């Protein structure tokens, strides 16, 4: 059974962690990448556009940018595991569990920057985790 019940819930948390990044020292570091990241999730189907430009991280739920610099395709459960610090994105890409279009090296350079966001994500999903237990 998938962790998220529907697309809105997946976006609340998976997009939420990017929104919260603006409240941390990580936000400006991500924003300095100057890229648009389009993420397509499955189970449930959801998509989010993350614009890391001009010193800020902007998140757009259910929005699509055909010209995004990098596009990632993955099950929402993999997104959840990544943000909990339990999933190696580079290994997922190598195994084909996560698909990518565009210069993947740009995203892989950002991955180490996301580590300080893992506790923030775990806080975001804490109530959901308690309800599921």
Mean pLDDT: 95
Number of strands: 5
Determine the N-to-C terminus distance: 14 Å
How much β-strand is present in the residues?
15-25%
Give the full name of the CATH homologous superfamily: SCP2 sterol-binding domain
Helix and strand sequence: HHHEEEEHHEHHH
CATH C-level class? Alpha Beta
| CATH fold-level label | Nonspecific Lipid-transfer Protein, Chain A
- Low-confidence runs: none
Biggest sheet record? 5 strands, mixed
CATH architecture annotation: 2-Layer Sandwich
What best-fitting shape do the alpha-carbon axes yield?
globular
Percent helix range:
40-55%
Radius of gyration: 14 Å
Based on helices, strands and strand pairing, what is the structural class? Answer: alpha+beta
Number of H/I helices: 8
* Biggest sheet, spatial arrangement of strands: 3-2-1-4-5
Number of domains: 1
Give a verbal description of the structure.
Strands 3-2-1-4-5 form a five-stranded mixed sheet. It starts with 6 loop residues before the first helix and ends with a helix. The protein has 133 residues and is α+β, with helices and mostly antiparallel strands. It is built from eight helices and five strands; from the N terminus they run αααββββααβααα. The chain has helices spanning 7-14, 16-21, 26-31, 76-83, 89-95, 104-110, 118-124, 126-132, and strands at residues 35-42, 46-53, 56-61, 70-75, 99-101. The protein has a single domain, classed as Nonspecific Lipid-transfer Protein, Chain A (2-Layer Sandwich). It holds the Pfam family SCP2.
